[in-house]
């Protein structure tokens, strides 16, 4: 197998985050569940945005955030995601290129605008996300570059994009290309809402040896397995995927590989400001460690450090020197 040009290539939502501070009363008035993620249409996106307080815009998307983190650590990262030929699409492309991430997906000239995520952050740092997917969910297999996929050591997929039929077909094609090239495939479960809609297809993918690495948080692994006990839930897939990684918020993270279970505590942070992107940057640190063939414990620690950095400020893109964290 030839040396990979990219450490990680991700396929995911290409969206712009719109982040605003709020309080619990606003969430209650809007009928929103704190810490949740919901998909909304263009009309609801316009209505909610009008009611939000002062906001800041920054390029986002779960897997795109992860690639931004890898690039910030000095890794070679690429991203595939669909935007429209509009202003937000230009913002997304500019930002991800500026971070050093390889991004070659052509914008669509269509009725669907570039996607955006309206993120409401309460004083306790919890984020409640309202996502209008827009052009992002029009990604098709035609947008893939087989050579780019074959030239990445790890193909990383986000479950947010697994729900719609077209992008899921593109991801399945990408998995086929990566496997044929002898590359690894990783998936993050992203959110319980994604699991509820596609549970059977996730289970089928795992049981058909489609994954080398599965990321989940505590709630997601419980939801996927239908178990109420964490250890039992982990045991369901521990021997069905080569490497299982489960984050448990302030309790740290667990990885199970070939029957070996490793736990690391969460990295300490002085104050939690905004939990947006915590899982994304944990995955960045872990994948960076994997690409560098670091020990499992080091991969978990890198993930924990990156997650701690991201929750110490607003937004899901790193502000501190992640290269220094790696050292």
CATH architecture: 3-Layer(aba) Sandwich
- What is the residue-averaged pLDDT? 92
CATH superfamily: Ribokinase
CATH class type: Alpha Beta
Spatial order of the strands forming the largest sheet: 6-5-1-9-10-11-12-13-14
CATH topology assignment: UDP-N-acetylmuramoyl-L-alanine:D-glutamate ligase
Order of helices and strands: EEHEHEHEHEEEHEHEHEHHEEEHHH
| Content-based structural category | alpha/beta
Low-confidence stretches: none
State the domain count: 1
Whole-angstrom Rg: 18 Å
Tell me the major beta sheet. 9 strands, mixed
Proportion of beta-strand residues: 15-25%
What is the fold's blueprint, element by element?
Elements: E1 6-11, E2 15-21, H1 24-30, E3 37-39, H2 42-51, E4 55-60, H3 62-72, E5 77-80, H4 87-98, E6 102-103, E7 115-121, E8 127-132, H5 146-150, E9 152-158, H6 165-180, E10 184-188, H7 192-207, E11 213-217, H8 218-225, H9 230-238, E12 243-247, E13 253-257, E14 260-264, H10 278-291, H11 296-310, H12 322-326
Parallel strand pairs: 1-5, 1-9, 2-7, 3-8, 5-6, 9-10, 10-11, 11-12
Antiparallel strand pairs: 2-4, 7-8, 12-13, 13-14
Helix pairs in contact: 3-10, 7-8, 8-9, 10-11
Description:
- With 327 residues, the protein is α/β, with parallel strands linked by helices.
- It is 39% helix and 22% strand.
- It has one domain: 3-Layer(aba) Sandwich (UDP-N-acetylmuramoyl-L-alanine:D-glutamate ligase), CATH 3.40.1190.
- The longest helix is centred in the middle third of the chain and has 16 residues.
